[in-house]
Design goal:
The complex is a heterodimer of chains A (334) and B (64). By secondary structure, chain A is an alpha/beta fold. Chain A has 16 helices and 5 strands. Chain A has 2 domains: 31 residues; 297 residues, SGNH hydrolase (Rossmann fold, 3-Layer(aba) Sandwich). Chain B is mainly alpha-helical and 64 residues long. Chain B has a domain of 37 residues. The longest helix of chain B has 20 residues. Classes of the chains: A alpha/beta (334), B mainly alpha (64). Chains A and B meet through α1, α10 and α11 of A and α3 of B.
């Protein structure tokens, strides 16, 4: 075979492969199912798609795993219930959320031209602890999309999460043009219910052998597990999450969007030893005053839930979520 | 067959064996082969993405 014939064949192979990938990508992007909450672990491409699909004038919920619905099915969360009741609710909270993330998400919403009728966000005291793994950080996908929308002074307060090496940049470049690759974590999650096929197989083996059930019984939530979760030293603007909470409230006020701040439901029976002290009340009082001074509506749910409505320190059971839905339905009236 | 081939009486030509394989008809046809190969490559790429291991964890937080 001559060189030109070989080159022609190679071109045919390459163009056919690219054409198939493009066609699959178009169908995938249009048909990938939507859920009542964000994926467990989501990518920048996925978040962009969610933002682009937002209807006009929704009630947007921003926050952490408490509002996302850790430990329960997507359709059992308070926000899924509210969305079924009134289509205007949209849950954009995620595990690892924080005031800094909520602020960055607001910037993204603004960038996408979304004008919510109200923003509901939760304020969880544990996220103001500098030892918390989410402190001073944006979720990788949120950082990727919102970084350029932040002011230099805001960026300076944050620790960069996404790697800036050449291979990481090339990877992000490929992700930006190939949707299936960019959303691979969501595809694997949708197909296997896990981060990848290997973990799904491991889960199946552990379930079949009874290892998973034995582990759950051996590690029930105990107070000692949460020692150090809350840093009860006095809060001020030097705390990065206080800084971003102020930025969030100020931005909402500037844009004329009503803001509803939920003081996160907390399991006081489980955490009694650590948080039923004046320092905890002082922190809560400080945040409440800060939010009220910025014209936010404060929904104090800190002690609004019974111990049996919690899975652990702050995540709610299905019954707890039903209770939360009734409270939000009553209190959020934009 | 060219003049470098050694002819052994009674031996089966290897080309005859290979061309009798069903796969040869699929990928050996002059017009279809580059396109079939392109589709196979694309499917391999998709399968690699879907079935590949999670190398980067976006879930970096111990929120609970």
């Amino acid at each position: 075979m001559s060189a030109s014939a070989l080159l022609g064949a190679a071109l045919k192979v390459a163009s056919t492969a690219v054409l198939v990938l493009v066609l699959v990508d178009i169908v995938f992007y249009a048909r990938f199912p939507k859920s009542s909450r964000l994926a467990d672990s989501f990518s920048a491409g996925y978040l962009n798609r969610e933002m682009a699909s937002l209807r006009s004038r929704p009630i947007i919920v921003l926050g952490d795993s408490v509002l996302w619905g850790y430990g329960i099915e997507p359709e059992q969360t308070a926000l899924a219930y509210l969305a079924r009741e009134s289509g205007s609710w949209r849950n954009l909270s995620f595990a690892g959320g924080s005031p800094a993330n909520s602020y960055a998400m607001l910037r993204l919403l603004t960038m996408h031209g979304v004008h919510p009728v109200a923003i509901v966000f939760n304020v969880n005291l544990k996220e103001f602890n500098a030892a918390d793994s989410a402190y001073q950080k944006l979720y990788p996908a949120v950082e990727c999309l919102s970084w350029n929308t932040l002011a230099p002074g805001e960026r300076a307060r944050l620790t960069v999460v996404n790697r800036q090496t050449i291979d990481a940049r090339v990877n992000r470049g490929v992700e930006s043009v190939w949707q299936l690759y960019g959303m691979r974590s969501e595809v694997r999650d949708a197909l296997f219910g896990e981060v990848d096929a290997a973990h799904a197989l491991q889960d199946a083996v552990e379930r079949a052998s009874g290892t998973a059930a034995r582990r759950a019984v051996a590690h029930p939530p105990a107070p000692e597990k949460f020692e150090g979760t809350y840093d009860l030293s006095p809060l001020d603007d030097s705390n990065v999450e206080v800084f971003f909470l102020n930025r969030l409230a100020r931005a909402l006020r500037a844009q004329g969007i009503p803001g509803y701040a939920i003081l996160t439901p907390t399991n006081h029976r489980l955490l009694h030893e650590y948080i039923d002290v004046p320092e905890y009340a002082a922190q809560l009082g400080y945040l409440k005053r800060t939010l009220l001074a910025r014209h936010m509506h404060v929904l104090d749910y800190d002690r609004a839930f019974a111990p049996d409505e919690f899975i652990d320190n702050d995540h709610l059971t299905v019954a707890g979520n039903a209770h939360l839905a009734t409270l939000l339905e009553r209190d959020v009236t934009p | 067959m060219d003049d470098r081939d050694i002819v052994v009486p009674g031996a089966v030509d290897v080309r005859t064996v290979l061309r009798s394989d069903p796969m040869y008809r699929l990928v050996g046809a002059h017009l279809a082969s580059p396109y079939v190969l392109g589709v196979v490559l694309a499917l391999l790429a998709i399968l690699t993405v879907v079935l590949g291991p999670a190398m980067d964890s976006r879930f970096i937080y111990t929120d609970f």
